[in-house]
Design goal:
- The protein contains four helices and 13 strands.
- By secondary structure, the protein is mainly β.
- It is globular.
């Protein structure tokens, strides 16, 4: 489990094919790592299989390859890094699993003073999980959704985020690993499994009474 608060950036040192997946070596000053511990690399949870003073190695499965941008990285590209959340740590972002749901694409960027406004095109199947003022993780960075417009959602990147993450190099057309909010994922799944759950006491009715859903009747 992670928070989406990037600790530092690293650099892809090598990528070697291994069966249907591959092994990556990441150069970083993240600090001493233990074999078997989890590290978020551009939002994807990877397991440390080797490490030395200059970085670590991790294996990328076929599933992770298919769902993320890790296979498209070039040697030398920067990556966002975060170690797993320790019990008792401050949860400054939101709960991030490192299980990437899909790939989103930067549609537009514009300057807003020192900040950058970003419009992101989301995969259609993930739109139900994205809500105004909700949270998403893009390349492992915890961000707040300002608004949702059709198949796109808007974010504001503050100067600190631009300074300490790889999002400072964003451009239109850039593909980003997207993880939707954990709570939204289970709420939508529950509603789908119960066909809306609109009966008395159902979750949909509870959410409507609390003001989270509009009354479509």
């Amino acid at each position: 489990m992670f928070t989406g608060l990037v600790e530092t950036t690293g650099q892809l040192r090598t990528r070697t094919r291994r069966g249907t997946g591959f092994r990556v070596e990441i150069a970083t000053s993240l600090g001493p790592l233990s074999l078997g511990e989890s590290v978020s690399v551009n939002g994807a949870c990877l397991t440390v299989v080797d490490q030395d003073s200059s970085g670590f190695a991790a294996d990328v499965s076929a599933e992770t390859h298919e769902r993320t941008t890790l296979g498209a990285l070039a040697v030398g590209d920067p990556v966002n890094l975060e170690r797993a959340l320790a019990a008792g740590d401050r949860l400054g972002g939101h709960l991030v699993t490192g299980h990437v749901d899909g790939v989103a694409t930067v549609a537009e960027l514009s300057k807003e003073g020192d900040a950058t406004r970003v419009l992101v095109e989301a995969p259609r199947d993930l739109l139900p999980f994205i809500a105004e003022k909700g949270s998403v993780a893009l390349d492992g960075v915890s961000l707040t959704v300002n608004r949702v417009q059709g198949t796109r959602f808007e974010l504001m990147l503050i100067p600190h985020t631009l300074a300490v993450t790889t999002l400072r190099t964003l451009s239109a057309g850039r593909r980003l690993n997207l993880e939707v909010d954990l709570v939204a994922r289970y709420v939508v799944r529950y509603l789908a499994a119960t066909r809306g759950g609109s009966g008395p006491g159902g979750l949909e009715e509870t959410l409507r009474r609390a003001g989270y859903l509009g009354d479509s009747r």
